Amino acid sequence: MAGAQNTEAQSPETPEFSGEVVLVRGVLKVRRRQAERIFRTPGVKIPVTKEDVIHTGADTRARVTLFATEETIDMYSNSHLRIAEYSKEETGIVLNVGKALFNIVRKLGLGRKVLVATRVMVVGVKGTRFVVGAEEDEAYALTLEGKLGVTLTGEPQREIDVGPDQMFFVTEQGAPREAVPVTPEVRDRIVQEEGLEAFKEVAGEALAQPIDKEPAGYFFRIGLATETLAFDYRGSGGAKASQSLTSSAVLMGWNFKLFGPINLDTTFTLGNIESVDIDVRDGPPSGDDTLGADTRGAHGEFRVASISLAYRMTLGNAFTWSAGAGRFVAWAEYKSRGADSAGRTHTVNVRGVQARVTAETVFGNDGTLGLFILRGIGAPQGTDINAAKRAGFKPKDAEFTIMALTVGRRF
């Protein structure tokens, strides 16, 4: 890497919106277009302007000053900073590796934009002093004074406010839903230390702690489900029979926060009956063969509605689970095409109690991919049950199950 020591770069072409970088200690490299220069003497001043790239070496400190706006950027060791934009309308800094402390003065008016971009998030400046750190696909931002507005590169429509003594971060393990507070001791460590160790410690502790609340709003899920309704009959003289219905369905659900981790969960499904099985053993005692009617080719609709009170918790912002209990209603209506069925319409209705659980992984900070399971029990009614009673059978409580793979979004 060729370069000259202690040699000033050429003056910027736009002196009003230009600046300088001063080497405090260590080794500094400045690249403009295709030319690179290395500086080693503390106190040397190097002119910089838009599109210049500044790289600090090990055990190096340097200060960038932007003249027109009196903004300063204190660069730490092993940092790579590019002045992407510097004009009357905007200051744009790219920091993909390293750490820098920014001191922003709104000299040219509140309408002017100041942005600091990393690979995974963009920091919009609403305040005065803050620290940004980055490496590969991780980034950290700490507000010292004022306020920041952070957006993730994959979610530009959502902004997270970061107030004084708060930080936000994105790591391989995930990101918090809101800014994380830091203690004065940790804040001072972040400012004084060269690397990102203090940032990483706060992020690791925040992601490891269970979060027993969801943000205000609601949660929506949709998925593909398999539903099964099954129950047994008992007749006189030891006669037995069983009936089951299986359906493939579309599931939709809404989860509304009530207070703390307690939520109101509603779920609806609409499915097509795939099979109806009626198995008669040792009967029927009366000779009525209604239960044994041919159900091959059965087709119809299976609809379910449920409501629950649920407890929801997010673990480490990467895994969400909830458990609840409540009531459900299931309606099944079908026709069979067998020779003995004569196109009769069959109905089975069940009302009862249910318990449900969900387990979901969080992606993109607001999206989820999960598993939904509901188990219910209740008394069956309908034409099939009436026919069974006429044949001398008494139905037992029906067991109902929904299993679904879902995708969702938290609001």
Set out the fold topology.
Layout: E1 19-25, E2 28-32, E3 35-39, E4 45-48, E5 53-56, E6 61-66, E7 71-75, E8 80-86, E9 90-103, E10 113-117, E11 121-125, E12 129-135, E13 138-145, E14 148-152, E15 155-162, E16 166-170, E17 180-181, H1 184-192, H2 197-208, E18 210-211, E19 218-235, E20 240-259, E21 262-281, E22 299-315, E23 319-335, E24 345-363, E25 367-381, H3 383-390, E26 393-395, E27 398-410
Parallel strand pairs: 9-10
Antiparallel strand pairs: 1-4, 1-6, 2-3, 2-5, 5-8, 6-7, 7-9, 8-9, 9-12, 10-11, 11-14, 12-13, 13-16, 14-15, 16-17, 18-22, 19-20, 19-26, 19-27, 20-21, 21-22, 22-23, 23-24, 24-25, 25-27
Helix pairs in contact: 1-2
**Distance between the amino and carboxyl termini:** 51 Å
CATH topology of the largest domain: Porin
Count of domain modules? 2
Rg? 33 Å
Based on the coordinates given, report the CATH architecture of the largest domain: Beta Barrel
Look at the structure and give the mean pLDDT: 84
State the gist of this model.
By secondary structure, the protein is mainly beta.
Structure in words:
The chain has 411 residues and is mainly beta. The protein folds into two domains: 19-209, Jelly Rolls; 218-410, Porin. It contains three helices and 27 strands. The strands form two sheets. It has a 17-stranded mixed β-sheet that branches. Strands 19-20-21-22-23-24-25-27 form an eight-stranded antiparallel barrel. Helix 1 packs antiparallel against helix 2 (197-208). The longest helix has 12 residues, at 197-208.
